[in-house]
Amino acid sequence: MSVLVTTASAQWYKTENDTAYVADYTRDLTVRLYGSRKYNYYDLKDSRLKKELLYRPNTGTNLGFGVNYKFVGLNIGINFPFVNDHKSEFGDTKYIDLQAHLYLRKFVVDFYGQYYEGYYQAERKPRAFNSAQQGLVALRPDLENESLGLSVQYIFNDERFSYRAAYLQNEYQKRSAGSLMVGAEAFAWQMRADSALIPSDFGHPGFFDNEPFSRTGAVSLAVNIGYAHTFVILKHFFITASLSAAGGINHSGFRYGDGRPRMRAFGWQLNNTVRFAAGYNSRRWFAGLHYVDITTRGASPVAGAHQNFGAGNMRFSVARRFSLKKPLIGKF
Predict the structure, then answer these.
(1) Taking the CB of residue 8, how many other CB atoms lie within 10 A of it?
(2) Beta strand extents in the chain (DSSP E only)
(3) How far is residue 119's CA from residue 86's CA, in Å, rounded to a whole number?
(4) Is 259 left (phi over 0), alpha (psi -120 to 50) or beta?
(5) Residue 38, Cα to own-chain centre: how many angstroms?
(6) CA distances from 266 to 78, 161, 218, 250, 301 (A)
(7) Residue from 171, 239, 182, 185 nearest 15 by CA
(8) CA-CA distance, 134 to 197, in Å (whole number)?
(9) CB proximity list for 102: less than 8 A, separation 6 or greater
(10) Pick from 208, 237, 309, 328: CA 20 to 30 A from residue 148's CA?
(11) What CA–CA distance (Å, rounded) separates 14 from 35?
């Protein structure tokens, strides 16, 4: 079960919408039903050998409902067993995932707070979305993750471009528009296991210099720049796509179970965040898909090898807006 409550009480974040482009329905009561799949992932990649090792958790799809009114949002999701029945094949993953994506008019803020226990080694093949379940190689129930992350971006064309229309359903993008964005982000994560993260039977000598580390992690800081655009088709259908890239530095390390000294190093950090949404939006109704995925790619203590850690959320929502005769909260 997951519950998310978001609030924002300050006034400095407000925007005077260009009403020819964005209709504001935050004073309506927006009610939604949704299905959501949260996830993270961990990849080890050795560019010298052109080989990679992929770990994925076996997360399920939550079904839930939510409401938005003015500056308050509430979503309650429940993991129903009849929807998620893959434990026998992909193992059991226990997790707490506190992702929060706050879409203010001038800013977009992403927070990641995660704990995952139980992964599987995935097949090495291309994938359309990181949230999609991949082929199974082996189970790793001993593998655990803890991660924290924060990303903030300023939206320049906030009068004409709205993330809220696609992701919160309390605005309506009438005409196509886009915006440049800049910001900064910070992440810290670690992976640990009872035995080496790279299995002895992996079959690629020299991969990560054969280092038998059982714990690894990184702390990174980066600045980002990106662009987002919503294409409105036949007044009510829309496609929203955005991509941001970030560059900075990280500090990563390996720890070993046999008592040998830790390996640590500073290196480069390259991140990217992808957002995609598509569906139908009108004065009263919304139906659509929305997707957020962030990948952090950082140098490791082994030259020519790097580690990717990422997280995201795939959701489908159907929402209805209700006009209110009297305000439920305050006068602003």
Answers:
(1) 15
(2) 2-6, 22-24, 29-46, 51-57, 62-69, 72-79, 94-97, 100-103, 107-122, 136-155, 171-173, 177-192, 215-233, 237-255, 263-281, 285-299, 305-322
(3) 13
(4) left
(5) 8
(6) 41, 38, 9, 6, 8
(7) 171
(8) 19
(9) 6, 8, 108, 109, 110, 111
(10) 208
(11) 30
Structure tokens at 27: 């004073």
Give the predicted TM-score (pTM) of the model: 0.89
Q: b/e string for 224-249 if b means 16 or more Cβ within 10 A?
A: bebebebebeeeeebbbbbebebebe
Residue with tokens 């790619």: 297
Q: Map residue 207 onto helix, strand or coil.
A: helix
Q: Is the dihedral of CA 210, 216, 221, 222 positive or negative?
A: positive
Query: CB–CB of 272/245 below 8 Å?
Result: yes
- Confirm if 78 and 108 have CB atoms less than 8 A apart: no
CA 11 → CA 16, 25, 216, 318, distances in Å?
12, 17, 42, 29
Rounded CA gap, 86 and 56, in Å? 13
Contact present, 199 and 174 (Cβ < 8 Å):
no
Asked if residue 195 lies in contact with residue 55, where contact means CB atoms within 8 angstroms, the answer is no
pLDDT digits 0-9 by tens, 119-160: 999 987 665 567 777 888 899 999 999 999 999 999 999 999
Average pLDDT over residues 216-222: 98
The full DSSP string for 239-273 is: EEEEEEEEEEEEEEEEE-TT-PPPEEEEEEEEEEE
Give the C-alpha separation, 284 to 172, whole Å. Answer: 10
